[in-house]
Every structure is written in structure tokens, then in C-alpha cells.
Design brief:
This protein is of the alpha/beta class. It is built from seven helices and six strands; from the N terminus they run E-E-E-H-E-H-E-H-E-H-H-H-H. It has a six-stranded mixed sheet. Helix 3 links the parallel strand 5 and strand 6.
Length: 181
């Protein structure tokens, strides 16, 4: 499978299957397009060209390790737009799963003219206080399987994975404080 060097500094590994109108498939946290959306990619590739990039720091994509700065959805969306430029793709349909859904929505918001349609599975859009129990269930990190550790070349997923719920918890606290002001 090929790699695309982007102007944002990410080198994204991707798969490109099928032919026809283009659908970009974006995976969720600790996934890759194939791992999270393999059955969907196979199904869609009968009628569409499906491009499944692996977001920075996941799978074979770089830079590593994956991290979660406060603006990681925007950074991933900018990586996606730069990826489209790198592979000379002016427009496409986009499908995002979980965190990939957040990235799809952000990318479409940043450059709506590039997306023919946007579909998400499991995207939340806003992390309000009611999300706290879901975020807290990510700890402890014993849910990360050996298969996922191998997929992302990580021996100890805790330092990487715990950034996500800690960031979400901080965002939830900030959101609820801002909402009450």
C-alpha cells in the first residue's frame, strides 16, 4: 500500500481500492481504515473508488507516537485535506467512523467545496458533561488488545491512549464551566 507525504508533516499510509466516484473512509481511535472499516471498504469498492488513509501516528503512518493535543481533530482534518492535495484529489465523498467522523465533519467544515457528501458513524460532535461516564470507561486501558498494540507498534499503550480521555475530561470540564458562566 502507498504512502502520501503531506505539507502538514504527516506521512499517511493508505489503501486505494475499486473504481468510480471516490469515497474517503476515515477510521476511529486506535484503528486504521482496514481495521475499522474493512467490510465497508470491500462493499463500497464494488461501485466506488475507496481511499482509506491511516491518520498520523496510527498504523504505518507517521509521525509517531500518536498524540492528542487539544486541537487534534483539526490537525487530523488539515492532514486529510493535505493528503487529498498530495494524491491530487480535488473532491470526494467522505465517511468517518467515531473519531474519524469528527475528522470528517471538521474537514468538511474547513473546505466544504471539496466534499460531495459527508456521512459519519458514531461521531458525537460535542463533548458535553453527559459524555463524562463514557470517557471514564476508557480507563483502565486494559481494553487495548494485543492485535491493536501490534497494529500501531506500541508496547505500552497507556501513555498514548490516556491522552485522549484526559483531554476529553479537560474539555468537558471547560465546556461545562463555560456553559454555566
Amino acid at each position: 500500500m502507498p504512502f502520501a507525504e503531506t505539507k502538514t508533516g504527516a506521512c499517511l499510509h493508505y489503501e486505494d481500492v475499486g473504481s468510480g466516484p471516490v469515497v474517503i473512509a476515515i477510521h476511529g481511535m486506535l484503528g486504521t481504515a482496514r481495521f475499522d472499516l474493512g467490510n465497508v471498504i470491500d462493499w463500497l469498492s464494488a461501485d466506488y473508488r475507496v481511499i482509506g488513509p491511516t491518520l498520523r501516528g496510527y498504523g504505518e503512518s507517521t509521525p509517531k507516537p500518536r498524540d492528542f493535543p487539544l486541537d487534534f481533530y483539526r490537525r487530523d482534518a488539515e492532514d486529510l485535506l493535505a493528503f487529498m492535495d498530495a494524491i491530487d484529489l480535488p473532491s470526494a465523498h467522505i465517511l468517518g467512523y467515531s473519531d474519524g467522523g469528527e475528522v470528517a465533519l471538521m474537514a468538511a467544515g474547513l473546505q466544504p467545496q471539496r466534499f460531495l457528501s459527508v456521512a459519519t458513524i458514531g461521531a458525537v460532535g460535542f463533548f458535553g458533561p453527559e459524555m463524562r461516564p463514557g470517557v471514564q470507561r476508557l480507563y483502565p486501558v486494559d481494553w487495548v488488545t494485543d492485535e491493536k498494540k501490534a497494529l500501531h507498534h506500541m508496547d505500552n499503550p497507556v501513555p498514548i491512549v490516556m491522552q485522549w480521555p484526559l483531554l476529553r475530561a479537560a474539555h468537558i470540564s471547560t465546556s461545562s464551566t463555560s456553559a454555566s458562566v
